[in-house]
Amino acid sequence: MNETSMQPAEARITKVNRLLVSQSRPADDKSPYFDLASKYNIQIEFRPFIQIQGESFKDFRRQKINILAHTAIIFTSRNAIDHFFRICQEGRVDVPADMKYFCISEQTANYLQKYIVIRKRKIFNGTKTATELFDLIKKHKSEKFLFPCSNIRRNDIPEFMDTSGLHFTEAEMYETVSTNLSDLEISSYDIIALFSPSGVNSLLVNFPDFDQNGTRIAAFGPTTAKAVIEAGLTLDIEAPLPNAPSMTGALDLYLKKTNP
Known about the structure:
alpha/beta, Rossmann fold, six-stranded mixed β-sheet, 11 strands
């Protein structure tokens, strides 16, 4: 058992000087992270713990998937769109104009214009959740669906398609891999903010002898929190909270205690 998990919660609430956010630095200087840095006089560093790597067309061919045997594509992210059209280009696949696109959100649907003329295509989108997407798919049960995805993905869409008895093919076109973090002095950070189970895995892959000691771990989302706990680490800060729907909001509440 991690020794830190046996410490009283109060003993771990000590002053914070350095925070490591396992994401890219925000492009907007008005990001709430910079407000936190100023408000609590702390140093915040940004470093992505994971990265997306496209699968080669040669590896994709091993899946023996005929893209043109499908009449509809399910997109849940911009990465999926980018790598689907990359694979099509490398394989000289000309996507027909009558192909239907089912997107998880309007933002994802709008991203399609990078590759196609949206107004001439049949595009359906929810607003944010997979449940809304399922309602749209149910209205088009006769379609043959292709699902471009990563080697690491949620189970909700494959499970829904399977239980609904729909024609469905899962196509792995990219993968989520750990970033090389060997140059970081990981023990020098007072808080490490993590956003996915893959991020937790990257921490452990890069630092197999990681000893948490007084380092606080912040996790966004229940699956990330679960991964932190299953890794034997102490979860100090969890987001979202009812009164703090974002990671920065949860950090703000915590820093009020540590850096008054």
